[in-house]
Amino acid sequence: MTTQLQPAAKAPVKRLRLPLHWLGVLPFAAFVVLFMVLPTLKIVVGAFQRPDGSISLDNIANLFTPSIMAAYGISIRISVASAFFGCLIGFFVAAAVVLGGLPRWIRGPLLTFSGVASNFAGVPLAFAFLATLGPLGIITVFLQQQFGINLRALGFNLLSFWGLTLTYLFFQIPLMILIITPALDGLKKEWREAASILGATNAQYWRMVALPILTPAILGTFALLFANAFGAVATAIALTGSSLSIVPILLFAQIRGDVLGDPHLGYALAFGMIVVTGVANTVYIVLRARSERWMK
Question: Which of 17, 29, 133, 239 is at 20 to 30 A from 8, Cα to Cα?
Fold first, then answer.
C-alpha cells in the first residue's frame, strides 16, 4: 500500500491593506500641514535668516528695541484685559443659565449664539463696532442728539486701548461661555447637598467647594482667551489701522511688501507671537486636563 504525500497547503498571502477609516482624516491632515505646519516652519526658519539666506540672530535681537517691546506690551495688556473681562462676564452669564433660575429654553439659543459670535471677527466685526460706537456710530449719534452726551468728550475712543478691548469682548465672552458651561454642568448636586448638610452657606459652598474645583477650568480658559486676543490680527488692523501700535499691526507693516518693510523682521515678530501664544495654549491644555480629572 502506497501512501501519497499531499502537497503542503500554501500559507495565505497577506495583502497589505490601507485602513479605509483613515481616509476621512486625510483632508484635515492635508489642511493642517499646508496651512499650519509649513507656514509655521517658514516663519521659524525666516526669523533666523538674513535676506541673503545666511543664519543670523539679528532679527531676534531687533525684537528688543524700545518700539517693538512697547508694541508687545500693549498687545499683552489688551489680551490680559479682554481675557479678564471675558472670563468674568462669561462666567456669570453661564452660571446664570446653568445654575441660576433662568428658564431652560434660554440655554439653547445662548449657546448657539455663542458658537457663532466666538468666531465673528475680522473686518465684519470692526465694521459693526464702527457703525455702532464709532465717531458717527448709531449709539454715538443717538446719545449726542437725544441726551447731549458726547462720548468723545468723556474720553471714549473706539480707536484706542479700551476701544479695541471692548471690541475683542464680543468674541471673548461667548468663547468663555462655551468652555465654562460644561465645567459648570460637572458640578455634582451631591457636593452642594453635602455642604448644606454640614451647615455651609451658599457663599461658603462657592468659596470652599465650587470655586476650587472650577479654578483650573477658569484659569485655563483665561490662558486660551489671552492667546485668542493676542493672535487676533484682522480685527485690530481693520479697526485701528496704524493708530494703535500693537504687534499684529507692526507685523503687517513689515510683510506687506513695500520698500520700507523687512520680511525677516516680520518673521521674527510672528515667531515671538507664536512663542507667547504657544505658552498660553500649553497652560490651557495642562489646566484643562487637570479640570477634567476633577470632573470625572
Answer: 17
